[in-house]
Design goal:
two-stranded parallel sheet, globular, alpha/beta, about 250 residues
């Protein structure tokens, strides 16, 4: 495939996603708008990285990229690695997306439009802005996620309905302004901390309603420890909100 330029990069962290990775890459590549893709693989023993490297070599050179890391280093560090790479390569719009089709690639242009056309700095694919739009999750997990977001809103005063969402579009200037090396959380707390930090700096945020579908193939990476980090870390974020000096909002 011929090399195509793009102002957008979709970062997809992976660990043991051999059932999904080629399908998700092709689904993004089939969109009318051109999105480049950066896979951050944490040493998947199932051969996920080999599949990606084969696709780069045979079909997607110039629009598909991979960073291979040794071992499971955490969702947050994977994204920060990807953010720094995206900034270095001067992408204007930087996306987070899961590999397992819980985030529909067809929603990427809607998140892009919120930032590129409507002028928002951060667009969040929100499960809870218009009710509860979650398919095939056990009811206990739906309630845990929904009330976790409610809890974050109450504790922090941060008016975003889906604070733990991992489907997002950032303008590059947001990632250049946030002090990425000061982001502390590694799991789902990372998602809350990034949004809250963007909010405290003063960036414009929009929630775009999406339907979240539980993975059909592969194994979920959610754990009690990841959730606990998010739950208790929110109190630290609130304290930071009172005491920390955030970077100034950059001028356009």
């Amino acid at each position: 495939m011929e090399t195509t330029t793009s102002d957008s990069i979709v970062i997809i962290p992976t660990y043991n996603e051999k059932e999904n990775i080629e399908k998700i890459i092709r689904a993004v590549a089939d969109l009318d708008k051109v999105f480049h893709i950066l896979v951050i693989d944490d040493g998947s023993p199932d051969g996920t990285a080999a599949i990606v490297n084969s696709l780069i070599e045979n079909e997607f050179a110039g629009r598909l990229f991979i960073i291979e890391r040794t071992g499971k280093l955490g969702l947050g560090t994977a994204y920060i690695t990807g953010f720094k790479w995206a900034i270095e390569h001067r992408y204007e719009y930087v996306f987070e997306m899961d590999a397992d089709f819980s985030h529909d690639p067809k929603d990427l242009p809607r998140l892009y439009s919120a930032c590129a056309d409507e002028g928002y700095d951060l667009a969040i694919g929100s499960r809870y802005i218009s009710g509860v739009n979650v398919v095939n999750w056990p009811i206990g997990r739906v309630l845990m996620s929904y009330f976790a977001s409610k809890y974050v809103r109450i504790v922090t005063g941060f008016n975003v309905h889906d604070t733990t969402a991992g489907f997002k579009c950032y303008k590059r200037r947001v990632l250049e302004t946030i002090e990425l090396d000061k982001i502390r959380f590694k799991g789902y707390g990372f998602q809350i901390e990034m949004k809250y930090t963007a909010h405290k700096i003063g960036f414009r945020i929009k929630e775009v309603p999406v339907i979240f579908v539980n993975r059909r193939e592969g194994v979920s990476k959610m754990s009690g420890g990841i959730f606990g980090e998010a739950f208790f870390g929110v109190m630290r974020l609130r304290w930071d909100g009172w005491t920390r000096k955030y970077p100034p909002l950059p001028k356009n």
